[in-house]
Amino acid sequence: MHMPVTIIGAGLGGLTLARVLQVHGIPVTVYEAESSPTVRSQGGLLDIHDYNGQLALEAAGLMDEFHAIVLEGRQAMRVLDPDGTVLFDKADDGSGGRPEVQRGELRQILLDSLPAGTVRWGHKVGSTRALGSGRHEVAFADGGTVVTSLLVGADGAWSRVRPLLSNAIPEYSGTSFVETYLFHADTRHPAAAKTVGGGMLMAPSPGREIFAHRESGDTLHTYVALTRPQDWFAAIDFADAAAATARIAREFEGWAPELTALITDGDTAPVLRPQYALPTGHRWDRVPGVTLLGDAAHLTPPNGEGANLAMYDGAELGKALAAHPDDVEAALGEYEQAMFPRSAEVPTFEGGEVPGIDSEQNTAQGLIDMITEKNR
């Protein structure tokens, strides 16, 4: 296949696609709005699943590099009641299929695997338009344009490529996360560190939950999930870190102090992260010369699969294009027909295990149901 592929977005999905295309000798260029790979933090830990994310890395030929950045012991999990009672405590015995890595390190592995110049930084997309015969024009905010016969939107929730295929717009899911960090936890925050343990902590309750994960460098990363309308969060001044922290902590009055300390003892200002979703079962009719992957295609409420699915989308699309070098439309159709039902599947909680829990995000309703059932 000699037709160059244009990818919008240098997240994990877009970079995985670029790498798989490069492995198969297919020319590719990635355009990314951010000015450099280090312009912002890439988030916390990701558990990379053996049934999708790791398969994508295998297709990319990067399993050795992946294993080199795995954080040992981080698949441990503890689940606590709001009063601090331990409901579930599982050590990391090395048998789990979801090893944890730092998102930024995983992204860097993908970036390092691509030839210099593959990613064009500082190219924020302003608009896209169809030119006919499967060709599309991408207009950038700086006034530049590029015309391509094969365009892939890997540009996340607010994709500028999606309007070429669908009128769908993400809507607020009803839940927002508030995020903070505790540094040097074992020495400065020993009670919280002991509560979290060596891996992930979950304290689920309907409408309000606390999650925390032990990252590298003795850091605890806390996520508070609250099911509240956006107006409720808008009334909080997050520019006033102390006041915002106190307001969020009030939603957990009566909870065990070792749990609320994960909020009140934060060493960083709380960051609000509203959660959005596309309509359930979002799909589109085949449009020549363009497709989507990851959150651009199937943004959902947090279910633990987002990053893994984006990488798997990228790998599967890359393999389809390599398998149909003379028929791009057959490749895109094959990819989409497999991707639509795959992205609509929802992880379940069975047998005391907790599949589908992503280190960064999960509403935990499935876990609440599991605990309720086990405690009957």
From TrEMBL:
Positions bound to NADPH: R40
Cofactor: FAD
Superkingdom of the source species: Bacteria
Cell compartments where the protein resides: Cytoplasm
Swiss-Prot/TrEMBL keywords: Cytoplasm, FAD, Flavoprotein, Monooxygenase, NADP, Nucleotide-binding, Oxidoreductase
Binding site for FAD: D47, R103, D295
Residue ranges annotated for the FAD-binding domain, each copy included: 3-338
EC id: 1.14.13.-
Keyword Ribonucleoprotein: no
Catalytic activity: a tetracycline + NADPH + O2 + H(+) = an 11a-hydroxytetracycline + NADP(+) + H2O
InterPro entries registered for this protein in UniProt: FAD-bd, FAD/NAD-bd_sf, TetX_monooxygenase
Pfam families noted in UniProt: FAD_binding_3 (PF01494)
SUBUNIT field: Monomer.
Assigned protein family: Belongs to the aromatic-ring hydroxylase family. TetX subfamily.
Role this protein plays: An FAD-requiring monooxygenase active on some tetracycline antibiotic derivatives, which leads to their inactivation. Hydroxylates carbon 11a of tetracycline and some analogs.
PANTHER family noted in UniProt: FAD DEPENDENT OXIDOREDUCTASE DOMAIN-CONTAINING PROTEIN (PTHR46972:SF1), MONOOXYGENASE ASQM-RELATED (PTHR46972)
Domain notes: Consists of an N-terminal FAD-binding domain with a Rossman fold and a C-terminal substrate-binding domain.
Protein name, entry field: Flavin-dependent monooxygenase
